[in-house]
Amino acid sequence: MPGPQLTGIKLQRSERLLTVRFDDGAAFDIPCELLRVSSPSAEVQGHGKPKLVTNKREVNISTIERVGNYAVKLVFDDGHDTGIYPWQLLYILGRDCDKLWQDYLDRLSAAKASREPLIAVNVKFSD
């Protein structure tokens, strides 16, 4: 039995949110950061144990590409472009956003990792 079908998708770039609407009336604002760290790509999902993706607080979506009648490919401004997001996954990410977000924050804390972007620093060594 197919789940709800996507009826609308809009990137709110300045808020770093992806708004998705479904034919059952549900609508969700999903943070780009959550979409990035929850990517269904093999790079993130690994082989049985998802990789903890860090330093993505300011990540945004640069391109949304439709994939048939079942998914979108999200291209992120950090170069990640291998995740295909089926409608069902977008629905789950929207519906369960608060729980998934807290799980992500808990994983970051346990790993003593950060959401903050890495900052390039020029270091000069003296002779």
Name the features.
alpha+beta; 3-stranded antiparallel beta sheet; 6 strands; GBBH-like_N; metal-binding; iron; 26% helix; globular; NE0471 N-terminal domain-like; 127 residues
Care to describe what's here?
With 127 residues, the chain is α+β, with helices and mostly antiparallel strands. It has a single domain, classed as NE0471 N-terminal domain-like. It is 26% helix and 27% strand. It contains 4 helices and 6 strands; from the N terminus they run E-E-E-H-H-E-E-E-H-H. It has helices spanning 32-37, 42-45, 87-95, 97-110, and strands at 6-12, 17-22, 27-31, 61-67, 71-76, 84-86. Strands 1-2-3 form a 3-stranded antiparallel β-sheet. It has a 3-stranded antiparallel β-sheet with strand order 4-5-6. Strand 4 and strand 5 form a beta hairpin. The protein is globular. The model has no long low-confidence stretch (mean pLDDT 92).
What's the gist of this structure?
By secondary structure, the protein is α+β, with helices and mostly antiparallel strands.
At CATH's second level, what is the architecture? 2-Layer Sandwich
Q: Alpha-carbon distance between the termini?
A: 69 Å
What's the CATH topology label? NE0471 N-terminal domain-like
Approximately how much beta-strand content do the residues carry? Answer: 25-35%
| CATH C-level category | Alpha Beta
Percent helix among the residues? 25-40%
Structural class: alpha+beta
Q: Which stretches are poorly predicted, pLDDT < 50 over at least 5 residues?
A: none
Radius of gyration: 16 Å
Main sheet overview: 3 strands, antiparallel
